[in-house]
Design brief:
Blueprint (H helix, E strand, L loop, with lengths): L7 H8 L3 E4 L3 E4 L19 H4 L2 E5 L8 E3 L5 H4 L9 E5 L10 H12 L3 E6 L1 H4 L3 H26 L6 E6 L1 H12 L5 E5 L22 E5 L19 E5 L13 H6 L11 H13 L9 E2 L3 H5 L30 E5 L10 E11 L2 E12 L4 E12 L3 E8 L6 E10 L9 E10 L5 E5 L11 E4 L2
Parallel strand pairs: 5-6, 5-7, 7-8, 8-9, 9-10, 10-12
Antiparallel strand pairs: 1-2, 3-4, 3-6, 11-12, 13-16, 13-18, 14-15, 14-17, 17-20, 18-19
GO molecular function, one term: lipoprotein lipase activity
Main location: secreted
Pfam families: Lipase (PF00151)
């Protein structure tokens, strides 16, 4: 990246016109749009399937924490396995620098099996993903072709419909899923977990994941960037595109490191700065257990979401990011639908957006800050600041909160006033009313201080009705 680069003409003249063919899956060329186009001036040809040692590991409720290695080349391994044509099938595909034999891919399969009786197939192409990033970019065409060949084998043996298949891919794995979908029409769903940006941003649809690759394509962007430091793709690439926390950097991590920018490697691993990129599959994992905590709001930009122009909306108007995105009634109304949300910094990352109105009572004016503490049924608490500085009696203070406690599990909300050191000892401040509107349904709850007495600092507590 930092060294002198050849000219466009030199790149095109030195790389185009080559082709390689592999038995079963066909031929691959480096003609445009695979090379020699803006964003992909220099790529190359993919390695052979044998060189990459591609494997498919089946997880079902019968296999437990173990798996069965199955092969489309030796189809009897599928017939003798616990694969069932009466169940839906999910393929999990890792990205650059990762593996499908352990880690998040296996954990995802095991969690999916807890909530759904499916066939879950972990796709491993670690030997094709651990070279240079450019070689891995080339190799996903073969991986996608192998996934498509596997699906064709299921069609042949079991008359298995692509409509029963869900492909879930992270980074380069997302574009791998797109390549498989390009080759097999009628796949029910593809989920792209922060599809890789370098060598894919701005390229033609056949090169990258796009809405035509499946009946429904949903995408989570967790590390896009307009400049080189982002690992994920910036533009929309699905029917529903979710941008949690704006889709650039995620809370709980520092910004992208210069080392990662120089190496330019969108890795699955949470090393050399790839943690924001990896957060997309962590979000998906947690969304399986906390679906309502990932509600996406329709906005044109994250700035407009932050300025609260998109609040509230019902689940008929707002989809849930992650595993249950396909339950959104309007998911296929059009492509490139943008949705925004904020998440917490720590697992399970889920938040519930709420609009809070607090009307004060007490002395006319004083300095300090007012906060609300949310208590859940398990004894956990989360505190959020509503306002600080000069506080005025009878004024209504408004704040949008992304609360980490599910409203359905909220036991009580506590009003806290912290006065400054210079506030008169006799000064008192209370909350006359606390009104809360929930973002998922627009439903409002009002908490009232019925006696309207002046309240001591940090003492006002009312149970939610």
């Amino acid at each position: 990246i930092l060294c002198p680069c050849p000219t466009y003409k030199q790149l095109v003249s030195s790389t185009l016109g080559k082709e390689v063919c592999y038995q079963r899956i066909g031929c691959f060329t480096d003609d445009p749009p695979w090379s020699g186009v803006p964003g992909r001036l220099l790529t190359g040809l993919p390695d052979s399937p044998e060189h990459m040692n591609i494997s498919f590991s089946l997880y079902t409720r019968e296999t437990g924490n173990n798996s069965q290695v199955i092969s489309a080349i030796n189809s009897s391994t599928i017939q003798k396995s616990h694969f069932s044509s009466r169940r839906n099938t999910s393929f999990i595909i890792h990205g650059f620098g990762s593996t499908g034999r352990k880690g998040w891919v296996v954990e995802m399969c095991l969690l999916l099996l807890e909530v759904e009786n499916i066939n879950c197939i972990a796709v491993d192409w670690a030997q094709g993903a651990n070279g240079t990033y450019i070689s891995a970019v080339n190799n996903i065409r073969v991986i996608g072709a192998e996934v498509a060949y596997f699906i064709k084998t299921l069609q042949k043996i079991f008359r298995y419909s692509p409509h029963e298949i869900h492909l879930i891919g992270h980074s380069l794995g997302a574009h791998t899923a797109g390549e498989a979908g390009r080759r097999i029409q009628g796949i029910r769903r593809i989920t792209g977990l922060d599809p890789a940006g370098p060598y894919f941003e701005g390229t033609p649809p056949e090169v990258r994941l796009d809405p035509s690759d499946a009946d429904f394509v949903d995408v989570i962007h967790s590390n896009h960037h307009m400049c080189i430091s982002g690992l994920g793709i910036y533009n929309t690439t699905g029917h529903l595109d979710f941008y949690p926390n704006g889709g650039t950097v995620m809370p709980g991590y520092k910004t992208v490191t210069s080392t990662m920018v120089i190496n330019f490697v969108p890795t699955d691993a949470t090393i050399i700065g790839g943690c924001h990129h990896s957060r997309s599959h962590e979000f998906y994992f947690e969304s399986i257990l906390y679906p309502t905590g990932y509600l996406g709001y329709p906005c044109e930009t994250y700035k407009s979401f932050e300025s609260v122009n998109c609040f509230p909306c019902s689940q008929e108007e707002c989809p849930m990011m992650g595993h249950y995105a396909d339950r959104f009634p309007a998911k296929l109304e059009r492509v490139n639908q943008k949705y925004f949300l904020n998440t917490a910094a720590d697992p399970p990352f889920a938040t519930w957006r709420q609009k809070v109105f607090v009307k004060l009572s007490g002395v006319k004016k004083m300095k300090g800050d007012i906060n609300l503490v949310f208590h859940d049924t398990e004894g956990k608490t989360k505190e959020y600041e509503i306002a600080s500085g000069v506080l005025s009696q009878d004024q209504v203070y408004t704040k949008y909160l992304d609360v980490e406690i599910n409203p359905k599990n909220t036991k009580k909300i506590e009003f806290l006033w912290n006065k400054t050191i210079f506030t008169l000892l006799w000064a008192r401040l209370g909350a006359e009313t606390v009104n809360i509107i929930h973002g998922e349904d627009g439903h409002a709850k009002t908490i009232t201080n019925q006696d309207k007495a002046s309240l001591l600092p940090r003492c006002f507590t009312r149970n939610i009705v």
